[in-house]
Predict the 3D structure of the following.
Amino acid sequence: MTVVNQLTMVSVVVSDMKRAKEFYAEKLGLEVATDYRQNDDNWWVTLTLPGGASITLARSSTTSNEPPKPGTLGFYLSTSDIAAAHKELNEKGVKPSEIQDNLYGPGSGVKFFQLQDPDGNQVTFAQE
């Protein structure tokens, strides 16, 4: 038995919530599910993806120890049409890398491109 059966949420620390929310909702097309704001320094926005997973953007001044810094996370999103996704993001002003076909090494056939969110977190789009 595996103790994990699926990833349901990724938390992304951001420096500017308004900018991050606009990027993920308007540029990437994710749906805002919750928007909880105590003040400018304590604000959480959850966005949903098809299939039930979510991304929570976090801007918080109340973390213990050393909090994660913006720009230190990377994650993968799948797409059924890599060329269409690349074109749409370009049209929205996002600057993705060129599409490549070797995500898992030469000959893998997995096409992908990468981009950075406003805080420098790496987002990889892949089509298997």
